Amino acid sequence: MSVTRVGQLAAALVSAMPGWRILAGPTPFTWAPDRHLRVSVTDGRELRRIVLRHSWSDQAHELERRLYREVLPHVGIRVPDLIACLAVDPSEPQWMVLGDMGSRHLRADKAADREAFLGLLGTLHAKTHDMLTEGRLRVEGLPRFDGQAQLAHWHDLIQNALQTPRFEVEPWMPRLAQAVFRELQRLPLAINHGDTDFSNAVLGMGGVCLVDWERAQIGPPAPDLGRVMAAVEHDGELQAYRQAFVGAGTTHLSPQGMQLWADIALAHHCIRWVCYYLEAHGRGKGPGADWRASYYVPCLAGLRKVRDRRPEWTSSS
User: Fold this and answer.
1) Residue 205 has pLDDT above 80, yes or no
2) Measured between alpha carbons, how far is 108 from 145 in angstroms, rounded to an integer?
3) How far apart are CA 62 and CA 47, in angstroms?
4) How far apart are CA 185 and CA 191, in angstroms?
5) 19-33 pLDDT tens trace
6) Buried-exposed string 269-287: b where 16+ CB fall within 10 A, e elsewhere
7) Does the pLDDT at position 181 exceed 90?
8) Which of 17, 129, 151, 294 has the fewest CB atoms lying closer than 10 Å?
């Protein structure tokens, strides 16, 4: 990010927070440095650390702004405080000024972090499911999960890839995709975060906080679970989600039901990234060998794992 751009942000921030002055920053994050910066400010009595965040689009900014202001405060999970919005360049989305929730993200390779993330998602899904059912959330205009559109697109990508051996897709995979989307329609609706990468779960003094809500939508919980499920090392970890879901809401979820949700979630996650790879190669912009080894091949293995656990989902009869 240019020095001029940082100076514009600093000036807009001071204007939006009368009585406060900048002590340090804005300093770009090491990841997504053009969209996230950290600043320390003071009013002479209190020291605060805040984050400046830039959305992908005007629509994403408005969705996230509305969630922070009108929806998430009623849910009872930890999210950043939305302090202000900054109009730095009229041709771009506004910047958000958010309370800094911490700098340590949960890690996929730590069992305690995986269980903490699953517990947080269980609470989010249970509470918002009940609130949606009872009409206690204002959700007009929030995006909705469109399973049919996804299925049609992903089904075509997999079918076409069957003609190319190097993609290693198999004839049962389109049937698995159809079964997964059929099962998705049977799940309860909740507010999904939409981008449950471990980098979006921040550990602070008050517990785990979910950030970056610009892909949130109303839909079945499984797509939110998929990213975390890909890191889960044994089925016992799933109890963190089930216990939080049952404890926070009124919907029963048995251990068998939890395993079903987990299989749907893992399959959906793996199909998504397999199809991302196939589509990118179709445009001539496919990821390289490292991405294939780190993501594509494990996702193919994940689909085989679900097939073996749910053979009825791939039966041709």
Assistant:
1) no
2) 26
3) 29
4) 15
5) 999 888 788 887 777
6) bbbbbbbbbbbebeeeeee
7) yes
8) 294
Beta bridge partner(s), residue 48: 41
What are the structural domains of the chain? Answer: 3-100 (3.30.200), 111-313 (3.90.1200.10)
- Model-level pTM? 0.90
Looking at the chain, the whole-number percentage of residues with pLDDT higher than 90 is 61
The answer, yes or no, to whether residue 66 has pLDDT greater than 80, is yes
Q: Is the peptide bond before 18 cis (omega within 30 degrees of 0)?
A: no
Band (pLDDT 50/70/90 cuts) for residue 317 is: low
CA angle 168, 173, 175 (to 5 degrees): 160
What is the rounded distance in angstroms from the CA atom of residue 39 to the CA atom of residue 16? 14
In this structure, are residues 243 and 203 in contact, taking their beta carbons and an 8 Å threshold?
no
How many beta carbons lie within 10 A of that of residue 10, not counting itself?
Answer: 16
**Which residues are 52's β-sheet partners?**
37, 97
